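Suppose you are handed a protein chain with no further information: no name, no annotation, nothing but its sequence. What can you learn? This example shows the usual starting point.
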Amino acid sequence: MTQIFFGRIEHFPDIAVDYFTGSCLKCRDFFLSHCHTDHIKGINTTDFKKHLIDNPSIRIFATYPTISLVLRRSKLAYLKPHFVKISTEEVRNVTLTSGCLLTVTAYDANHCPGAVMFLFENTHRKVLYTGDFRYHPSILTEHFVKNACNIDALYLDTTFYNPRISQFRTFPSKKESGRQAASFILNQLDRNNEATFHIDIMPGWEHIFIACAKTLDLEIQTTKDILSEYEELGDVSTFLTMMNTKVHVNKATASCELCGKSTIKLRPSVQWKAHHNAVQSSSFISPKIGTENFYYITNSVHSSYNELKTFLSHISTSVIYPIAVGAHIEAPHLIQLLQRHCRTTEFSPQCYKPVGSTCSKEKLLQADPINVDDSLAAASDSNCDVPSDESDDVDPIFVSSRKPEEVNSTDDDDVNLMPRLTSRSDLKEEVLTDVSENTIEMQLNSRLNKRRRIRNSDIGVSSNPSTTETDTNYFNKTLLDDIYREFMQFDSD
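A reasonable first move is to predict its three-dimensional structure. Written in structure tokens, the prediction is:
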């Protein structure tokens, strides 16, 4: 998985999110969505420490569980004076250190304890940043639907947004993953009552050992550090003990002090499905090839491809920025696929408009443009990989060049989407986008460029710097006239 989001929200340049290095050091207000290490990159560096010393008013907004889990890590206690607690569905009016006013609302992300999505808004813009999240209908609370579904921009967790990988299209629910793990342990105990089990643990995988504790009617053994960590987070710790039991949980390390030689190890993961054949991939639990007493539990704290499509069906946005690019897909193609879910183009109104419906020419002319950031297109060449120690569903053990099973035929338009769409039906269904050659190739780039050249010659608008603003505005208006007439013609077919 490749990270292509580096902390800056285009519409709110005074804040940084989930990133504490690079250009984010220009900011003095930070927002942390959750505690995983790939979202606190740079927080323990010399540069950030110096930034804190030079700017003692720096604030880091996060939920209480996130603050607690971060501060428990070694060498991070010095951050405590800078943390500001924010609660879910609390509408917080923040005066940034730059003097700007910003309204922030946190929503449950169903990812790990304390994980949230952030809704940022001011009088001009409204942007939703999902961070890492696992879609579930419970996310769509009344408050969320009322405030966060009609927005200007969406920063989306796209870890598994890949229509061609069949194993990523659907995942078992968290509840089902826990039930399958407990059932597996019961079956193994029926064969050998002396068996012991190790389950890898990290924030977000609690549902696995909780299901095992309830089904087996026993407490789950763990270390002192993990027990004290969860004691600050509520009821989860009631399922844990430091006493010897048949099942224990510990962090995913090469060696575990609680394991015996014959201990059966279970690792929650979903990436393994993409590296096995179709028969094995249909299983919930599979042995690790070449390793004895090691099994994978199909489990994800990120949204599947189908879950992402369902979530996007509830969101009306002008542009979508992916946060990360998963395996076997390139950033430009991913961005192109995501634009299919956007409601508008730079020529279209900001108000909600279902695809195919009519809108007035006056609203089109009043549209406020939002363009895809040029730097996003170049991110596919980035070598900035997510750290593997807590990269959620991305298993660091996998070092395989084998391509996962691809979907060959489906009714999903994303699977067969080519780099450029030119058919009449596609033109009616897709957004109309005007982008330069330095950005990603969008659906109608070639048509708009051709029309621009023709219009240039017709009205005498050149591409050199001496072109007047009046001529350019006239050119944009006449080009918009053509697009609008074509749109209305298709809409009436």
